[in-house]
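Subject: for your reference before the review

Hello V.,

The reviewers asked for a structural picture of the protein, and I figured it would be easier to keep everything in one thread rather than splitting it across files. Below is the amino acid sequence we used in the manuscript, unchanged from the supplementary table.
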Amino acid sequence: MRVTFKFFGVLGGCATIAVSIGIAAHAYAQATADKYALKVPGGLAFAEFKGFEGWQAISVSQNDSLLAIILGNKIMIDAFQAGYPDNGKAFPDGAKMAKLHYHPKKSEKAPSPTTVPGAMDDIDFMVKDSKRFADSGGWGYAAFMYDSATRTFRPAGLKDAPPQANDAKCGAGCHTLVKNRDYVFTEYAAR
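And here is what came back from the structure prediction:
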């Protein structure tokens, strides 16, 4: 939504810009607030990961179609820095990760061919809670698809890739491949 007021004089343009920016900021804040109301049916809530936008980077990854940055909360970062899971220890309860997937695109600004994140595709979350998720290796999972046209998220479902069931254990199946790493694929990148 954009509201424009017409003013006469030099300050008119400044007022129009200020009102437009204010309304855009309000719309962004509303979309941001709405994501925290989402929950995977029978599973994790987006709100359980509030503040993930400010978490430190653990690593990056790329598959055939998406780029990803993997972020961790302080508990997760501290555990990786202490050598988990390569030291044989399981991550502590409260450790959380967010994996933000983007469609790759060629940079329009870099002087040489450079691939950068384009439109967001989805966000995957993991949280360690060995009591709550005892039957899935101690980890709970959630995936939320992103619609760039509306700048909104929705819980991932069975028709998404990969298919997501309606509970916090939806990621447990493929993560058993790394059971010996406490179900975590991500490797901490050197700094």
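For the response letter, the relevant points are probably these. Residues 86 and 156 are 31 Å apart (CA to CA). Strands lie at 56-62, 67-72, 96-106, 115-128, 139-147, 152-155.

Happy to draft the paragraph if you're swamped.

O.
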